[in-house]
Amino acid sequence: MNQNILKQIEYPKSGILSKEVLKNKKTDVTLFCMAKGTEISEHTSTQAGFVYVLDGSGAFTLADKKIDMLPGVLIYMNENEIHSLKANKNTSFLLTLIK
């Protein structure tokens, strides 16, 4: 599979737009596009995964540690780790869950 992910980025006027990029038995990859000011409250995932920031800027909180969401930043999350995020500008990232 070959795709230009950057060409798939489109920001909603508010909230979050998500697009499934790849899903198989071992991996689940989703593109998230968050409008400026959008927040995702504290939550967990039953799977470990990576967030790779493509565009924009935001704040990611992982187990009480603040991480700047800037293009090129890679964030690893263990399963069941509490995390939240806020888009300071229109922000896009790939979420890869490892099954």
Summary, kept brief:
It is built from no helices and 9 strands. The protein has strands at residues 16-23, 27-34, 39-43, 48-55, 58-62, 65-69, 74-77, 83-87, 91-98. The strands form 2 sheets. It has a 5-stranded antiparallel beta sheet, with no helix packed on it.
Mean pLDDT equals 95
Which spans have pLDDT < 50 for at least 5 consecutive residues?
none
Structural class: mainly beta
Q: Could you spell the SSE succession in H and E letters? A: EEEEEEEEE
Cα distance, first to last residue? 19 Å
- CATH homologous superfamily (4th level) name: Jelly Rolls
What is the CATH architecture assignment? Sandwich
Bin the strand percentage.
over 45%
> What is the total tally of β strands?
9
Which key terms come to mind for this protein?
99 residues; globular; Jelly Rolls; 5-stranded antiparallel sheet; mainly beta
Account of the 3D structure:
The protein has 99 residues and is mainly β. It has a single domain, classed as Sandwich (Jelly Rolls), CATH 2.60.120.10. Helices cover 0% and strands 57% of the residues. The chain has no helices and nine strands. Strands 1-2-9-4-7 form a five-stranded antiparallel beta sheet, with no helix packed on it. Strands 3-8-5-6 form a four-stranded antiparallel beta sheet, with no helix packed on it. A hairpin with a 3-residue loop joins strand 1 (16-23) and strand 2 (27-34). It is globular, with a radius of gyration of 13 Å. The two termini are 19 Å apart. 21% of the residues are buried. The mean pLDDT is 95.
